[in-house]
Amino acid sequence: MFRTPRLLLRRWHDSDRAPFAAMNADPEVMKHFPAPLTRDESNALIERIEADIETRGFGLYALEMAGTGEFIGFTGLSVPRFQAHFTPAVEIGWRLSRAAWGRGYATEAARAALEIGFTRLGLDEIVSFTTPANVRSQAVMRRIHMARDESGDFDHPQVPVDSPLRRHVLWRITAGRWRALADHQTIVEPETPTGR
């Protein structure tokens, strides 16, 4: 588990399943994905995320409000499960409940995830991608000092060919760029794991 000033990035608990399913069923949260998730799909996603953390030693961590224990989404690092011109790669991602939007939580947690990736995992580069219309996520990418790779835009192979969401924009940040801007990062403090 990792702590930022307001948040905990931690392993997933069974109690996260219901609020995560509600979040994944919210059409506004899932606007830039092909479809909202069913409860079973949402639960399966937690299982995949937890399996990745067990296998790789990192992943998409559940995001909790440090003061209240409220689950608000996820943030972390993952390895894309498809082939593209920039893979293999490590991706930073986040998904927050609508009630948590607009308060800087995604940026705060994403800065912590970059710190984990570059200082604890020794990564050379981290990427992120989304649809061109997802300006909220791209604003987070900009705030964490990622750079848009306009030559890297691509058609997401896991999105249907006829979908308007198929085209994605690519953002990148190297370890060198992150180190040059490290004074802007959130300090991450390891915490004692509490289990699932």
From TrEMBL:
<dbReference type="Pfam" id="PF13302">
    <property type="entry name" value="Acetyltransf_3"/>
</dbReference>
<dbReference type="InterPro" id="IPR016181">
    <property type="entry name" value="Acyl_CoA_acyltransferase"/>
</dbReference>
<keyword id="KW-0808">Transferase</keyword>
<protein>
    <submittedName>
        <fullName>GNAT family N-acetyltransferase</fullName>
    </submittedName>
</protein>
<dbReference type="GO" id="GO:0016747">
    <property type="term" value="F:acyltransferase activity, transferring groups other than amino-acyl groups"/>
</dbReference>
<dbReference type="InterPro" id="IPR051531">
    <property type="entry name" value="N-acetyltransferase"/>
</dbReference>
<dbReference type="InterPro" id="IPR000182">
    <property type="entry name" value="GNAT_dom"/>
</dbReference>
<feature type="domain" description="N-acetyltransferase">
    <location>
        <begin position="7"/>
        <end position="176"/>
    </location>
</feature>
